[in-house]
Amino acid sequence: RWVGYEPRCTPYWLHSIIWWLANALPEPFVDAYRLKFSLGIRKRGQLKDSRKKE
């Protein structure tokens, strides 16, 4: 009964907890975390690409 009852569905229990926590925190904190996380992924990808070019 997860699909179709709310705008978002997170059927995996751990994702539900993470989603609840993200909604409980103030938006600027969540945004800062997401930005830091995404920039880390981008940096690792750029390092990987630079190693391939060498």
From TrEMBL:
One of its GO terms (molecular function) is ketoreductase activity. GO terms for cellular component: endoplasmic reticulum. Keywords: Oxidoreductase. The keyword RNA-binding does not apply. The keyword Oxidoreductase applies. Belongs to the short-chain dehydrogenases/reductases (SDR) family. This is Steroid 5-alpha reductase C-terminal domain-containing protein. It comes from Pinus radiata (Monterey pine).
